[in-house]
Predict the 3D structure of the following.
Amino acid sequence: MSRYAAYAASLVLTLACLWLARIEPAWWWGAAIFGGLSALGTLDLLQRRSTLRRNYPILAHFRYGLEAIGPEMRQYFIQSDTAEVPFSREQRALVYQRAKGVNDVRPFGSLHDPYAVDYEWINHSLAPARIASADFRIVVGAGRAQPYAASVFNISAMSFGSLSAAAIRALNGGARQGGFYHDTGEGSISPYHREAGGDLVWEIGSGYFGCRNDDGSFSEERFAANARDPQVRMIEVKLSQGAKPGHGGVLPAAKVSPEIAATRGVPVGQDCVSPAAHAAFDSPRGLLAFVERLRNLSGGKPTGFKLAIGHPWEWFGIAKAMQETGILPDFIVVDGAEGGTGAAPAEFIDHVGLPMHEALMLVHNTLVGLGLRDQVRVAAAGKIVSAFDIARTLAMGADWCNAARGYMFALGCIQSLSCHTDRCPTGIATQDPRRWGRLDVPDKAARVAAFHRNTLHALRDLLCAAGLQHPDQLGPEHILRRVSPTEVRSLGALYRFLAPGELLDGRVPEHAVFRNFWQVARSDAFAPPANVGSARPGQGAW
């Protein structure tokens, strides 16, 4: 295989030079050089901390050399001219350091220009607080039969199928060690999710994988059998995901192995289709009835849904259905359009769906305006990596955060952008056992737990500096943003936040989105109101 070509060539050239050295002593120099490379390749194969080195002996060191030159040179040499790296080298370095337990302090000041427009920070207090523990938790489903105390930082949805068996093992093992949850993704619960026994949030997508009848419809019996497993702590209905909202997916027949078929409950060797929409409901009221149905079938476990916000009237229809029926989800996960995926059409990745900050504020504002915010927990996901990312997201209305790529970096992801090719060099996003079999699960599980632990320690330090005792005290007034070279605003001043109950009694706040769409939103159908597009020029929907 080409992955081992450099190593194999070094061995052959070492032997050739040794043979030639018997005739001409100068060949001893070649034997020494190629022998050193052979020794390096052997060490790469035998060590267990770097999957990349195990999969690419000798060659991996050239990659590390290019990375050391700088991100610009790495992009020039390794990626196309038009490729965009989702996260900077500095962001990945922060995750790697925290995952490996390496000191993450930095000399010579900030890498960011504090006078640049959009620069953000959290203000500190002259009376810093003391917080004994960084194990911050939020109770979800209070009053239900089986409430759950969730960490404020968890693993977002990534399915077995998109990720390898070894990656799933390591993520769940890390979740078990760190006491946080691991979202299964819509590919259902595999044997690899169960091995370590870490807390699971079971995501139910439109394909109903793991709880479907042979015709693809939802199966109550199969759902209850999985949902009542003590390892499953919450149930999440996936309406859409940030990276490709409004778009289903197909796992090609060639990739539907017996193992994946058994996990998803689909035939072996046939295309595995995940439709764009659910078949079990077709309206906001139907969604809430489905949530209540799943909650009862699970034995009273916290049940909610995940969505990327698109048309505001559809979200308003769900909110109105909550108000009218009295059926409330225990939680809502807001997935921003900047969320990642293994593969999606370019237009969907770049230009479909609302970014996380705006989507989160819309959901938070609506629940506050209806007087429901204290009864429904809200989580958010979308390019969250650092403690400041968490603090800012909580300040804007979330109760906790989920992350995918940050935890993938902890596993060793190098952003090779080859997730969709089944040739992931680090064994994370591939079903090729020759690649994922070299990912050392215990080592990577420890790194996942360390990344979580050290990030929450950093969050604790931020809270202490701000004079706060818990993340739930963060508000938009704590985060500042430079909006011009001479102007600074808090998020509380930049954005319009609704007052409790402001949507009750037929009132419509002076907020463009609510003014245009709240009154006309329907709880009985995901349908556009009659006057969509009637806003006068300059009036604007947003």
Q: What stands out?
A: Residues 69-84, 535-540 have pLDDT under 50 and may be disordered. Residues 441-466 form the longest helix (26 residues).
